[in-house]
């Protein structure tokens, strides 16, 4: 498996994945214009001509608010775009790995780390469309792998697209000295994108199915932010403000269990916990100066 098609390489995850994979693989990285995933004939032709061994599909509409405002476009890109990739992968016999999201769990009431086999009831278009895409992809290409990724973070890097994330939001708040509210009634994994990048090669060998993908977390989002601020030695009082009202109706828990992917990969796929990942990230920043 040495020729890999990666979509979405002008994006946050795709740019970083393509950079790392191109050290080891022949990477095909078409732009949005060169391979518009909403056009089945374009996707089919691209895969027919280039014959990749695997596709890492990262092109999507990743902004949940935008998807809520533009549900038809979200359906075209986030559901049908995946479906077209799955058709092409099945037709030309290549492995498809693509990114779903932990947002499929956002209507669940269960507590504790969630596993892939529970019934899910996403509450927004983004989550519902990711769930629909999982079903479409597996129906069209049973060997395809859907990754229910958590929220990812990184610093801004030269030449790489970086949208706002957990650490850039905190950095910005510290710079501006503006307090930031973090929900005490929310539990979610938050993952350093470098860990996703370093696991992706092993992910190409997973059997078809749906897998949680990213850091586990037992802390709520406020305690996670506090832990990170302690790690970076921040003593600014009240930069992180506990928001006890958000998710008042029910605790929001989209915190995942990584058991399935770790076991299916014979232990090769591994993520640090959210707090351990933040510590490694903070240490790497300190080393880099
Ligand atoms: N970032 C996160 O924290 C996070 C968390 C969970 C899951 N995910 C999922 O992970 C994947 C990657 O996310 P990301 O944050 O890297 O997204 P992103 O930064 O928004 O990048 C999206 C990419 O998709 C491309 N794209 C959009 N519409 C396209 C189309 N019709 N045809 C071809 N390319 C198209 C964009 O290209 P242009 O800019 O040229 O349009 C861009 O390269 C997505 O599936 C996202 O839902 C992300």
Strand content: 15-25%
Strand order of the largest sheet: 2-1-3-4-5-10
Structural class assignment: alpha/beta
CATH architecture of the domain at 3-154 and 190-214: 3-Layer(aba) Sandwich
Unreliable residue runs: none
- Within CATH, the superfamily of the domain at 3-154 and 190-214 carries the name NAD(P)-binding Rossmann-like Domain
Give a brief outline of the structure.
Helices cover 41% and strands 16% of the residues.
Describe the structure.
Helix 1 links the parallel strand 1 (3-7) and strand 2 (26-28). Helix 2 runs parallel beside helix 4 and helix 4 packs parallel to helix 5. This protein has ten helices and twelve strands. It is globular, with a radius of gyration of 19 Å. 41% of the residues lie in helices and 16% in strands. The strands form four sheets. A six-stranded parallel β-sheet has the order 2-1-3-4-5-10, with helices on both faces. It has 289 residues and is α/β, with parallel strands linked by helices. It has helices spanning 12-21, 40-50, 64-69, 71-92, 125-140, 166-176, 193-203, 221-231, 259-264, 274-288; strands at 3-7, 26-28, 54-57, 95-101, 145-149, 151-153, 180-183, 186-187, 190-192, 209-213, 240-243, 252-253. It has a domain at 3-154 and 190-214: 3-Layer(aba) Sandwich (Rossmann fold), CATH 3.40.50. The structure holds NADP nicotinamide-adenine-dinucleotide phosphate. NADP nicotinamide-adenine-dinucleotide phosphate is lined by residues 7-8, 10-14, 32, 35-38, 58-60, 62, 77, 81, 99, 101, 149, 151-152, 161, 163.
